[in-house]
């Protein structure tokens, strides 16, 4: 008897949830975690066996793929990629490839983040916690021309005040000493070039620190990082 967990016994590609009339020919997955890329690739390959699935660990490699392999039917973009500040990665893709739907895939499901991504032109926002069937339904919805917005639950709404402050303190505590210094400069209203001058480091180094800070604080802009820091009473 065959093991039901083997790929040979998986449901036929067109028989399960998310079976799309608009099967993609090429999808690009952009995420800095190989495990996430592999998981999404597996789901796509089982659902759309004729689809070419490419992946990149950052924005620049993704742009290179789009330039060399040709435009994709769908780009799945992680929200918090090191080296990318806020929604700039999404904005760059939308500016250069306006006809290509870009769907954000993220572990961050705060309502404000979802709305900001959709307002910036994302064709959908997929929480990484979505089960396979819901993921395929979301792909089908976007590929047919829709915009996918996840259902928000109580778990996705802001914490109670005390819980939220403790969570913010924990995120700030995860920063390295240098990142804490840079965060202090952000709170003080410094621009990147001012921070670089004051710390005697390159602009590239400052940008790398800022990106790491946004990633660890789970926010998508400098402004939100400053707001979180102020809530926690963090000062320069």
From TrEMBL:
UniProt keyword terms in alphabetical order: DNA-binding, Phosphoprotein
InterPro entries, per the entry: CheY-like_superfamily (IPR011006), EvgA-like (IPR051015), NreC/VraR/RcsB-like_REC (IPR058245), Sig_transdc_resp-reg_C-effctor (IPR016032), Sig_transdc_resp-reg_receiver (IPR001789), Tscrpt_reg_LuxR_C (IPR000792), WH-like_DNA-bd_sf (IPR036388)
Response regulatory domain segment(s): 26-143
Modified residues (4-aspartylphosphate): 78
Pfam families xrefs: GerE, Response_reg
Domain HTH luxR-type: 168-233
Name of protein: Response regulator transcription factor
Organism of provenance: Novosphingobium clariflavum
């Amino acid at each position: 008897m065959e093991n039901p967990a083997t790929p040979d016994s998986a449901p036929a590609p067109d028989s399960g949830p998310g079976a799309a009339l608009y099967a993609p020919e090429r999808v690009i997955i952009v995420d800095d975690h190989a495990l996430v890329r592999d998981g999404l690739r597996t789901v796509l390959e089982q659902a759309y066996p004729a689809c070419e699935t490419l992946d990149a660990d950052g924005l620049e490699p993704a742009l290179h793929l789009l330039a060399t392999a040709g435009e994709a039917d769908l780009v799945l973009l992680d929200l918090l990629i090191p080296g990318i500040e806020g929604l700039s990665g999404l904005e760059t893709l939308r500016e250069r490839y306006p006809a290509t739907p870009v769907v954000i895939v993220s572990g961050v499901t705060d309502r404000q983040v979802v709305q900001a991504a959709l307002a910036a032109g994302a064709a959908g926002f997929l929480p990484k916690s979505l089960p396979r069937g819901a993921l395929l339904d979301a792909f089908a919805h976007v590929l047919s021309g829709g915009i996918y917005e996840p259902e928000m639950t109580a778990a996705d709404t802001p914490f109670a005040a005390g819980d939220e402050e403790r969570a913010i303190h924990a995120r700030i505590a995860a920063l390295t000493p240098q990142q804490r210094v840079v965060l202090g400069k952000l709170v003080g209203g410094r621009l990147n070039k001012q921070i670089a001058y004051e710390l005697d480091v390159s602009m590239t180094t400052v940008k790398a620190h800022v990106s790491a800070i946004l990633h660890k604080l789970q926010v998508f802009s400098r402004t939100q990082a400053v707001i979180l820091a102020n809530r926690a009473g963090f000062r320069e």
